UniProtKB/TrEMBL annotation:
A Pfam family recorded for this sequence: DUF4268
Highest taxon, organism lineage: Bacteria
Domain spans labelled DUF4268: 10-136
Protein name: DUF4268 domain-containing protein
Amino acid sequence: MFSKEEAAQLRKEFWTSFGKSFPRKWLLYNTKIKGFTFKFVADKKKAMVCLDIEHTDEIANELLYDQMLSLKVLLETEIPEIIFNEAYELESGKIIRRIYVPLDDKFNIHNKNTWRNCYEFYMDVMPKFELFFYEYEDFINQAI
């Protein structure tokens, strides 16, 4: 068991190590679509690559998610293991729309032996997400 400080230090080390091992500028929050962001997630139980739809306007949320659903078959062609969840509950209890790919292997951010596999997973999946976004950005933007 780790103290709060040790856990925070390990999280920081995880992300710093990822950035140094795989230096690259990621799209993440720079989609130019409000409430439409790509994220890397890593915690004690899971790792995943996500597209989160969290617009402050609920109608815009629904429209963006519906637009992505209309592209679902195309996205599944590029990333077969993708999951669409219109009511994903975050640890905070907040419900968002999330489209994501989970790392199938065991992962724990506190276990450095699992880090490399996670990094490789990120490097495999996120570029596919980004490429898909760039290809369909104009269409997605039409939703709102």
